Amino acid sequence: MTSHLTNLTIIQAKEGLRAREFSAVELIQAHLKAMETHRGLNAFITETAEHALEQAGKSDIKIGNNTADVLEGIPMAIKDNFCTKGIKTTNASKMLENFVPTYESTVTSKLFEAGAIMVGKSNLDEFAMGSSNYTSYFGGVVNPWKEKDNAKELVAGGSSGGSAAAVAGRMAMAATGSDTGGSIRLPAAFCGVVGFKPSYGRCSRYGVMAFASSLDQPGIFARTVPDTALVSQIAMGHDPKDSTSANMSVPDLMGAIHKSVKGLKIGIPKEYRSEHLDPEITKLWQQAEDILKAEGAEIIEVSLPNTKYGVAAYYVIAPAEASSNLARYDGVRYGFRSSVKDMTLDEMYESTRSEGFGDEVRRRLMIGTYVLSSGFYDAYFTKAQKVRRLIVNDFNNAFVTVDALLTPVTPTPAFSLDSPSIKDPIAMYLNDIFTIPASMAGLPCISIPGGLTSKKLPIGLQLITNRFEEDKLFRVASELERCINFNAVPGGF
Amino acid sequence: MSITKSEVLATARLARLRVSEEKIDGYIAELNKILDVINSLQSVNTEGLAPVININEFALPLRKDEVTDGNLDDIFANAPNALYKHFAVPKVIE
């Protein structure tokens, strides 16, 4: 019964709750039990079982008197960089190990108001900086998937690795994530789930701890496209508390998922046929192209000539913005403070930041500070912002001809936790080559499971549409999902 | 462009980070590897292009400068050291 409950989609669970086949308390208990069983995956930093059961009791009352909301009783993992009022929010850093927010992020408050129930705060790379989850102060997340006949533990991807692993590992039906250069799409691809990053400005950033403010965008994980649409529909929308939030009406995603791709033009960017791409991913990418063609879409090769500069421009802009955003962690108002005795104020700042931040965060703060420093600002930071314009123009040109782009998400499937490349920052940065450009242009994009490799690991496919065309994105994603019919489950789940 | 020892130390000072003497050479090598990637931007022709600051290019709204929330007790509960409803820091005046 319980494993049956954790394998349901959100849409099935809603139906089961409505028909009184099971209660919200039973649904939550089944997921809490899965969290306990799979604690070894390290998907959660904080488990909120007591809170979840209390909320489930309230949901059952609402279901009983027919006042249930859209996500009533649905268990969700919340990435631990979303502020949750009264519940520890660490950003996977020693710096915020004991931080208890005094307010709720807009996205989580909307989800909770719609009835969703938080089962825990999910693990991530420290300050969301990483693509392996290796940089978490609380240890890396283990991917629920393993290669066939190989017990070696694999990374869940980053930075929202805990969220993706929680959804893939049947510990939550959906999860929040945040994506700066690929932090939702990459772990979604590695864990065989759906990960959606909306247009920049679609989901409020209020209460999501800032990394690179011109790129950060909250988004949603779930196991199917319709489930992702249902939850995202709630999470999106204008928020006066975020000055970059788009004051526009939210498209009807639940309507879009029933439309066919017939007559749509799908672009294949030729620059994404990269030498770094695993041949098995190339094959599944081609299969997806054939599927869309068979369903009546027109396939057109397009060019995004400045793609090759994406990673370089990103690794100027994101660290620069981070070095400014993370200046607030000074040991004065909240967070960690060094306990070294008899320090001056300056020494206290320096010791606090040197002891409180991990290696990757310190490395990015150094790069960011360097590219913003006097004498280098124009040569690096302004230059990167101008190159960003070229990347934006590439997409604008492509969307004159096509409705959506179909690309890979990652160059390879999930790699092992003891892979030597995990400690090489440049090798890690290259995991983001296919996800960074759409982030730089603020475009909506989604990663959906495209199939399994010969070693039985999931591979993701990325769809990208023009700014604020999330409805078109979900239209293509749901058609592709229906045709691929990905129903593989990681072994033991 | 590559980064020198004195630039690493000056940058660390600006970022309020400490770089220990035994780690500095490793740091220089690592930062230079990252700068090698970043330096590929120098060859791109960006003449006449406006830098992207806010991708959506909406006018940023302003709000009234007034207190809308905040409970001092909750806020001070997160402070590493708070005294008499103030944040306490090491002495700055002799």
Explain the layout of strands and helices.
The complex is a heterodimer of chains A (493) and B (94).
Chain A: H1 2-6, H2 10-18, H3 24-37, E1 44-47, H4 49-64, E2 75-79, H5 106-113, E3 117-122, H6 161-168, E4 174-179, H7 185-191, E5 194-197, E6 217-222, H8 225-235, H9 253-256, E7 265-269, H10 279-294, E8 298-302, H11 310-325, H12 345-356, H13 359-372, H14 377-401, E9 404-408, H15 425-429, H16 436-440, E10 445-452, E11 458-465, H17 470-484
Parallel strand pairs in A: 2-3, 2-4, 7-8, 7-9
Antiparallel strand pairs in A: 1-3, 4-6, 5-6, 5-10, 9-11, 10-11
Helix pairs in contact in A: 3-4, 6-7, 11-13, 11-14
Chain B: H1 5-14, H2 24-38, H3 72-77, E1 82-83, E2 86-87
Antiparallel strand pairs in B: 1-2
Characteristics of this structure?
heterodimer, A: 493 residues, alpha/beta, Amidase signature (AS) enzymes, eleven-stranded mixed sheet, 39% helix, globular, B: 94 residues, mainly alpha, two-stranded antiparallel sheet, 3 helices, 2 strands, 33% helix
Please outline the major beta sheet of chain A.
11 strands, mixed
Which parts of chain A are unreliable, with pLDDT below 50 for 5 consecutive residues or more?
none
**What is the helical fraction of chain A, as a range of percent?**
25-40%
DSSP helix count of chain B?
3
- The CATH superfamily label of chain A reads Amidase signature (AS) domain
Number of beta-strand segments of chain A: 11
Count of alpha/pi helices of chain A: 17
> Spatial order of the strands in the main sheet of chain B?
1-2
Oligomer kind: heterodimer
Count the E strands of chain B.
2
Structural class by SSE content of chain B: mainly alpha
Assign a percent range to the helix content of chain B. Answer: 25-40%
The portion of residues forming beta strands of chain B comes to under 5%
Query: What's the shape of chain B?
Result: flat
